[in-house]
Amino acid sequence: MRRFQLAVDAMKKGVRILFLILGLSAIIAGAARPVCAGLGESSGSIESDRNVLSASRHTMTALSGYTVEEITSDSVAVREYIAPSGVVFGIAWNGLVHPDLAPLLGSYAEEYQQALEQTPRKPGRRRLQVKTPRVVVEKWGHMRNLRGRAYAPALIPPGVSIDEIK
């Protein structure tokens, strides 16, 4: 009987360790986010944005003073504005939905989220502007035609107007 009790105790301990390992694995997997070419980051990983958005098309346009890379999915088109230094300084989108901004804003996502929570909603307003010292995010539009843009004013190249981020 004593040997049986020792075996049961050992099995319980093994099950507890297994649940601990599975729990830690789930926490680690849940905390992992896809790496994207977010605002203020290098343009080298824009391909991962395409995967995050399940986008099918990817086009690039060189303009005076910056480059625009557009990725398009069934529900949204996202344009990432890249300075000559290779840093994403602005993002714009339009489509049926607003994209998940967390991966697109990169290191600015948490700052945006905190400012959004403190921004009062105005009844009847369809335009939202969230402005912090480092980032500006604007959303507007109506059903089936939602638009927006986000930019880091300090990263905009000289000679480029914020009105070009559209």
How would you explain this protein's 3D organization?
The protein is α+β, with helices and mostly antiparallel strands. It folds into 2 domains: 1-32; 43-164, no CATH class. Helix content is 31%, strand content 28%. It has helices spanning 2-31, 46-52, 101-105, 109-118; strands at 57-63, 66-72, 76-82, 88-95, 128-131, 136-142, 145-151. A 7-stranded antiparallel β-sheet has the order 1-2-3-4-7-6-5, with helices on one face. A hairpin with a 4-residue loop joins strand 5 and strand 6 (136-142). The longest helix has 30 residues, at 2-31. The chain starts with a helix and ends in a 15-residue tail after the last strand.
User: What topology, given as strand order, has the largest sheet?
Assistant: 1-2-3-4-7-6-5
What helical percentage do the residues reach?
A: 25-40%
**Morphology:** extended
How is the biggest beta sheet arranged? 7 strands, antiparallel
User: Structural class from helices and strands?
Assistant: alpha+beta
Give the percentage of residues in beta strands. Answer: 25-35%
Unreliable spans = 18-36
Mean pLDDT: 79
How many E-type strands?
A: 7
What separation lies between the terminal Cα atoms?
Answer: 76 Å
Quickly describe the structure:
The protein has 166 residues and is an alpha+beta fold. It has helices at 2-31, 46-52, 101-105, 109-118; strands spanning 57-63, 66-72, 76-82, 88-95, 128-131, 136-142, 145-151.
Attribute tags:
about 170 residues; alpha+beta; 7 strands; about 30% helix
